[in-house]
Predict the structure.
Amino acid sequence: MHGPGDVRVEERPEPTIEKPTDAIIRLAASCICGSDLWSYRGIEQQNGPTPMGHEYAGVVEAIGSAVTSLSVGDFVVGSFFASDNTCSICRSGYQTSCHHREPAAAGGAQAERMRVPLADGTLVATPAMPEAAMIPHLLAASDVLGTGWFGAVAADVRPGGTVAVVGDGAVGLLGVLAARELGAERIIAMSRHAARQELALEFGATHIVTERGDAGVEAIRKLTGGDGADSVIEAVGTHESMWQAIHATKPGGHMGYVGVPHGVSLDGVELFFSHTRIHGGPAPVRRFLPELIERIWSGRIAPGRVFDLEVPLADAAEGYRAMDERRAIKTLLTLS
Amino acid sequence: MHGPGDVRVEERPEPTIEKPTDAIIRLAASCICGSDLWSYRGIEQQNGPTPMGHEYAGVVEAIGSAVTSLSVGDFVVGSFFASDNTCSICRSGYQTSCHHREPAAAGGAQAERMRVPLADGTLVATPAMPEAAMIPHLLAASDVLGTGWFGAVAADVRPGGTVAVVGDGAVGLLGVLAARELGAERIIAMSRHAARQELALEFGATHIVTERGDAGVEAIRKLTGGDGADSVIEAVGTHESMWQAIHATKPGGHMGYVGVPHGVSLDGVELFFSHTRIHGGPAPVRRFLPELIERIWSGRIAPGRVFDLEVPLADAAEGYRAMDERRAIKTLLTLS
C-alpha cells in the first residue's frame, strides 16, 4: 500500500531464511482483512509503502536449522503474531503477548511466499494436504475465525447463555459462529445489511437487531427482560461500538472486544457503574488453532463462507475497493 | 457537609418509616469513608449541605409492614446501596446494580439513627447481639471489607496466585486480607507509609513495594519473572492508579477496580494491547455479607483493625481532618 486508496501489486525480493527458527511458506491463498481498511482509508498513518496482509495458510517450502516440529511439504496455518509458544505468557494462552512476540508477516502475506519467524511456536500443520475447497476455511482460521473465537471466549460465552454481537464484518459473523459452537442458546446479531444478516443466521444467529447505538442497546435490553446480554462480542473498534457493546451487557456480564480500537476512550465512572467485565486484545489465535483446524477438517464448521469475493492477487486493488465500499464482506486473493 | 472542609454535626429530624419495606436502625457506631474525602476536598461537587456517611451496623428499631425477614431488636449490617435481592440482577450477585437500587443511607449514616429502604433485601442480621469489641469489625463489613473483597473477587484471586494491591487505604488493606482469605500465595502491597505497611503485613501481605507509577510496575514485574501479577486490586480511583494496576497485571490476568474513578479515561489501544481483563464497580457487598459476618463472628478475620482513630460523632470534623491529612487510615465515630 503506497498510501490511502493506493494498492499496487509489485515484484518484491523472494523471502529467505534469516534466522534458524524461520520457515518459508508458499501461500495457498491470501486475503484482505477488515483491519487493512484502516490504513486504506487513511485513518491509520503509514510510513511509506507497506507490504500488506497478515493472514496465511500454505505449504512449507524451507525451514531453518532450529525448526523441529515442521517439515518441508507440510500444510500449515499460523497467526498474525509469531510466538515461541513456550514462555510463561504463551503457556497461559496469550501467545499474542509472548515475551518474544513479533509480526508473523512483516514482509506481507498478500503475496505468493512469506517468511514466518518462530515457526515451531507459530505454525500448526493440518493432518494432511487439504483439498482446494478447504483452503478458504483454513485461511479464515488464521485470523478472522480465531479472532471471532477469542471474542466469544473473552465474552465468556457459555452453554445456554445469551450473546449479542456488535459488528457484521467477517470477525463479527465468525463471532456468531463461535458463540454457537460454544453452546450459546440465543445469539443476537446486530446488522442492517441483508447479505450479512443471512450469513449470520446461517452461522447460528437466532435474532437480528437492525438498530444501532442507544436504540440498539434498547433492543437488546428488550430481548433480555431489561437485563442486557450475558456476553457481548465487540468486533468493530470504534468508540461508538465499544460503548454500544458495554451498555448492551448485563451488569456482571462479559464484553469481549476484538476490533482494533480507533479513537476509543473509556470514561472510568461510566465503565465503573456499568459493572461490565471487559477483556480483549489481539486474539491469541495460536491457542485456538488446533481445535479450529479440527472443526474445519471434520466439516463441522465452514468459516470460509465469509469470503464472498474472489479475485486474483494481481487484482488486489479491486479487492480492497469492494471491501471499502462494503460490496464484499471479505476478499479472497487467489494465487496461480 | 456544608462545603469542602466544612463538616458540622447538627440536629436533624428523626427518620421515620416512609414505605412498608423500610426499616429504622439505631447505629452501634458510624465511620468515615475514604470516598467521603472526594467532596471534603472539593474534587466532587455537592449541591448544598449534604448528610454524609453510608456505612452502618446497628439495631433494628422499627420495620415497615411489608418487612418479613427482620424483627425489631435484630442487629444488622447492610450495604451502601439498597437492593431488593430478588430481581434477576441481584440473583446473579450484582445487588448494587439491582433493578430497584437506591441509596441505602440517603439521610446519612454518620448519625444516630437512619432509615434503610428495601430492608429485607439490604440488611443481614448477625446470629446474636454482638459484644462491643465486635462492632468495628461488623461495621467494616458494610463497605470497606465488602469492597476490598469484591476487588479480590473481581481480580479473580485464586489459591496459589500472585496478587498486587494498588492503594493502602482501608479498602486496599482489606483487599490484602481478602486475597489471603481467598488463598493467594503471594500478596504484594504497594505502600510507602509505615503504619499501613505494618497492617498490610498483619493482613497477609508477603511483599511490600514502595515505588509508584512506572517504577512500581517495574517492581511488580521484577517480582513476577517479567510477567506481571495474576490479579491486581485497584483501590484508589485515579487515572494514575488505574494504569499502574493495568500495567502491573500479567497479560490475560485480572484487574479488579473498586476505587470510585475520578478523572479516569482508558485509551482503547493501550487497554487492547495490555490484554488485561478488567472488572469493577460499586461492590455488591450484599452478596458477600453472610460469609463476611460468619468469618468475623468466628474470629477468623478482624477487619475493624483499619480503624486507627476513634472520636465521638460530635467530633466528626476532626475525624475528617485526620483522614484528609493521612494521620488516620479510617475514623470510627462512636455513639453514646
Residues 18 and 64 of chain B are 8 Å apart (CA to CA).
